[in-house]
Amino acid sequence: SAPLGGQLLCLEMQDHYLKVHHSAGSEMILCRMEDAARELVDFGQRVHRSWWVAADAVEGVEREGQRTLLRLNDGRQVPVGRSYRPNLKGAGWL
Q: What does the alpha-carbon distance between residue 59 and residue 11 come to, in Å, rounded to a whole number?
């Protein structure tokens, strides 16, 4: 498709589509999360079964009880899946 209108922030899985969130808005594309995460491995990480996040979009980490959330530079909070925590800790994200 056409190039994004801004900085890539994150990908959110919705049924068989990915919602691509970027600094200029969002758009839906038909793509599997596994394929997109593999293509973007140099730019970010999968943080949840339904979410991939760009490394340069992360501003901080927040906790809500047992939940861990990544705060992105657009104010969005993205959940961190339990099984993804060890990789994110090893990468210095948490």
A: 16
With beta carbons less than 8 A apart as the criterion, state whether 29 and 12 touch. Answer: no
Q: Which two tokens stand for residue 92?
A: 């210095």
Is residue 29 within 8 Å of residue 52, measured between CB atoms?
A: no
Distance CA 84, CA 46 (A): 7
Contacts 24+ apart (CB under 8 A), 87-90: 87/45, 88/45, 88/47
Q: In what order do the strands lie in the sheet with 67-72?
A: 58-64, 67-72, 77-79
pLDDT for 64 beyond 70: yes
When pLDDT is averaged across residues 27-48 and rounded to a whole number, the result is 95
